[in-house]
Amino acid sequence: MAATVKYADVEVGTELPLRSFPVDRANLVQYAGASGDFNPIHWRESVAKAVGLPDVIAHGMYTMAQGGRFVTDWVGDPGAVVDYGVRFSSPVVVPDEGGATLEISGRVEEKLDDNKVVVALTARSADQKVLTRAKAVVRLA
Amino acid sequence: MALNRDFIGRTFPPSQPYEVSRVKIREFADAIGDQNPVYRDQEAAKAAGHPDVIAPPTFPIVVSLVDNGLADPGLGLDYAMVVHGEQRFEYTRPLRAGDVIVSTGTITEIRSIGKNEKLVLETEIRTVEGELVCKSYNTIVERGV
Predict the structure, then answer these.
(1) How far are the Cα atoms of A78, A88, B101, B136 from residue B11, in angstroms, in the given order?
(2) A127: helix, strand or coil
(3) Exposed, middle or buried, A139 (CB in 10 Å: 0-12/13-18/19+)?
(4) Looking at the 3D structure of chain B, how many domains does it have?
(5) Rounded CA separation B121/A6 (Å)
(6) Taking Cα atoms as reference points, which of B141, B12, B123, B129 lies closest to residue B60?
(7) pLDDT digits over B66-104, tens only?
(8) B114 at interface of A, judged by CB pairs closer than 8 A
(9) Which ranges carry the FAS1-like dehydratase domain (chain B) (predicted)?
(10) What is the CA radius of gyration of chain B?
């Protein structure tokens, strides 16, 4: 079960429409607690700046999780993801005031056998590409 | 600082068994802002063909980074300078509530890229019964100064 997107209905080039995901400091604190990654660069500006970062940055895995959510919402079943990988090309800088926005879009890059397709993701924040080589292999209905 | 090349190919002892709970899955799903009912509601998960609630695709990071050996002082890794370079998961099936899993990490690569040091850690996540659920490929970069 239970992907809602049918393999027969997608082609190479099928677009997954862009969505915006806001991220603020409270999200990062909550993610630190849930994931166990308490690196202070994700919640303390003084530490982030002391190690040469412009400000607090999001956990790479938080950004990757938003990409995962983008794909699984499209497919309809998170269990349909068989492979998911990303490269963290640029940090998502999260200011104290206002936070940041992640903009994620996708495109079917390849159709494989066994109803699987490769979805290539694009993720940007503040005009920077924050993920590159971001690809998920999902099994469609 | 250069990482100890003797660690290339080293497999660390398996982690302590970790029991995946419904509460932890829900906490993680809440933290990533994902309201999908298959992470929270057993009936919804069953309707989707799963025996119990499943975990989001990036959840295995929670267990792949526990007791993974990178803290071994002999390796020489300065965690304050570490950034996550790449991450990939290959899934045999989704992790789900009730799984008791053990992760075993192997350093497959260490090399210099300019002033930085790159390290790749591959982690196998298996149930205590031995079923391979997921493989994690974690690339970290220790920034040089």
Answers:
(1) 30, 25, 17, 14
(2) coil
(3) middle
(4) 1
(5) 35
(6) B123
(7) 777 888 999 999 887 888 999 999 999 999 999 999 999
(8) no
(9) 7-135
(10) 17
Structure tokens at B135: 């493989």
Q: Domain A7-23+59-139 is of which CATH architecture?
A: Roll (3.10)
Q: What is the mean pLDDT of residues A47-74?
A: 96
* Helix, coil or strand: residue B116: strand
* Chain-centroid distance, C-alpha B45: 23
Name the residue in chain A with its Cα closest to that of B94: A79
Interface contact flag, B48 A88, Cβ < 8 Å:
no
**Residues from chain A contacting residue B137 (CB–CB below 8 Å):** 85
d(CA A41, CA A139): 36
Run of H or E residues at B107? strand B100-113
Give the domain extent around B104: 5-19+59-142
Q: Residue B44 falls within a domain, yes or no?
A: no
Q: Which of B78, B83, B136, B138 to mutate to test the interface with A (most CBs of A within 10 A)?
A: B83
- pLDDT of residue B33 exceeding 90, the answer is yes
Q: Residue B17 gets which letter from DSSP? A: P
